[in-house]
Design goal:
This protein has about 280 residues and is of the alpha/beta class. The chain has three domains: about 30 residues; about 140 residues, Periplasmic binding protein-like II (D-Maltodextrin-Binding Protein, domain 2, 3-Layer(aba) Sandwich); about 90 residues, Periplasmic binding protein-like II (D-Maltodextrin-Binding Protein, domain 2, 3-Layer(aba) Sandwich), CATH 3.40.190.10. Helix content is about 40%, strand content about 25%. It is built from eight helices and 13 strands. It has a five-stranded mixed beta sheet with strand order 5-1-6-13-7, with helices on both faces. It has a five-stranded mixed beta sheet with strand order 10-9-11-8-12, with helices on both faces. A three-stranded antiparallel beta sheet has the order 2-3-4. The protein is globular, with a radius of gyration of 26 Å.
Length: about 280
């Protein structure tokens, strides 16, 4: 009798343990099942950590205490399409791609041109902007529309940008002076420490619009260096999701609304025209 009771007790214990195990597995499975916003392997589930700038109007800048700009609106729209909450981190441009490569940012949205050198360390989304780079100078400068007029001049630019590499490759005899941001470079030009500033066209145009003592003698179109969002190389799901979002944003006309908000007079390439698809 005691032996029979013992067997029954043991059997009950085994069944209970088995049921508890099933319950635990079920709970674990449910807890780890990703929601639609967690499928992309982001640093924090449900959010998209976006590195950007703070003083690069009209790309990303602070106005009345709020971060705004073309890149900010585009990144916000992309995050919304991915069902993720955008979380912006403002950094110097030269630190953004290293942060993406190191995995401390999900993406960077900072008017970043795609170059072979940059593709060695990070991956890029599909193109969502094509632009110009420009030279601004004080009015009366001897720098003309010819790049050869830059020879012997001190040219300020933001460290780590496309302008940095372009100047090295195309402006022989120019003394390059690097700054952490465009405002610092412009201030140095105003103080007479440098002769000109090399920067993205919209930012240069904003300086010209605000200050009649500044002119813009040189503009260079860059269709070979399209702008895209950067991300870690080991995030294929995130890249696929972002590319799908970009396609939807362009097709719906949302991209055009954002673009005209910040570049009202700029021409729109055919690839960014809405299709309604």
């Amino acid at each position: 009798m005691p032996r029979s009771t013992s067997r029954k007790t043991a059997l009950v214990a085994v069944v209970a343990t088995f049921a508890l195990g099933l319950s635990a597995c079920s709970a674990t499975s449910s807890a780890s099942s990703p929601t639609s916003g967690d499928d992309y392997g982001t640093l924090t589930a449900g959010t998209l950590k976006i590195g950007t700038l703070s003083d690069a109007k009209p790309y990303a800048y602070t106005e009345n205490g709020e971060l705004t700009g073309f890149e900010v609106d585009m990144a916000t729209a992309i995050a919304k399409h991915l069902d993720l909450k955008p979380v912006f981190v403002q950094q110097e441009f030269s630190t953004l791609l290293p942060a993406v490569a190191a995995g401390s940012l999900d993406v960077a949205a900072a008017s970043t041109s795609v170059t072979p050198e940059r593709k060695k360390s990070v991956d890029f989304s599909d193109t969502y902007f094509i632009g110009y780079i420009s030279i601004i100078t004080p009015s009366g400068s001897s720098i003309t529309e010819k790049a050869s007029s830059l020879k012997g001049k001190r040219l300020g630019l933001m460290q780590g940008t496309l302008e940095d590499q372009y100047a090295q490759d195309h402006f022989p005899g120019v003394q390059i002076v690097r700054y952490p941001d465009n405002n610092a470079a412009n201030a140095a030009m105003q103080a007479g420490s440098i002769d000109a500033v090399f920067l993205d066209y919209p930012i240069g145009q904003d300086f010209v619009d605000k200050d009649p003592s500044i002119q813009m003698p040189i503009n260079i179109e860059l269709p070979e260096y399209p702008v895209a969002m950067s991300m870690h190389k080991d995030k294929p799901a995130l890249k696929k999701g972002i590319n799908k979002a970009i396609k939807e944003i362009i097709a719906s006309g949302e991209w055009l609304e954002i673009e005209k908000k910040y570049y009202p007079d700029a021409p729109v390439p055919d690839q960014f025209q809405p299709t309604g698809k």
